[in-house]
Write a structure and sequence with these properties.
Length: 163
């Protein structure tokens, strides 16, 4: 049983988060977008802690991760996701305004799946997000532990152990 795909948007700039939400509107992608306003919230959402404790099980189809965020920056969030065996297969796209080669290199060293510089022009910004969202939620085939409800994965493992 597949769960609905969803996107985690980690963005501390409220107006930019709202523009991103418009570009990733459910009627365009048919998936939910959850916003984390800092790195701590992003990690809490992925790990179902704090205010996200009651979030449905399962991982996002995509994490759109800003580089420069309060509390825990995007590189540390990325490092924690990619170093955790239960989370490492979650696709992470760095979506940031930084063009610094050190940021690009470090992101890929830590396991980023893509690095996209936010276009300044709203039309190009919106188009870039639509393409990113469409690819990761419609075209990309996710590994089972990301695509399925975690309970379903556990049930399948139990069944294969019995049979």
């Amino acid at each position: 049983m597949k769960k609905s795909k969803w996107i985690l948007l980690a963005e501390d700039d409220a107006p930019l988060a709202e523009l991103t939400m418009l570009a990733l509107a459910p009627e365009k992608l048919a998936c939910e977008v959850i916003v984390a306003r800092d790195g701590v919230e992003a990690l809490d959402c992925i790990r179902r802690r704090g205010e996200f404790l009651t979030r449905d099980e399962g991982h996002p189809a995509l994490v759109l991760l800003d580089l420069k965020m309060p509390k825990v920056d995007g590189l540390e969030v990325l490092r924690q996701i990619k170093s955790d065996p239960r989370l490492k297969n979650i696709p992470v796209v760095m979506f940031t305004s930084s063009r610094e080669l050190a940021d690009v290199n470090r992101s890929y060293q830590l396991g980023a799946n893509a690095y996209v510089v936010k276009p300044v022009d709203f039309q190009k910004f919106s188009e870039a997000l639509e393409k990113i969202g469409r690819f990761w939620t419609r075209l990309n085939e996710l590994p089972p532990e990301v695509a399925c409800n975690q309970k379903t994965v556990r049930d399948l493992r139990q069944l294969s152990a019995v049979g």
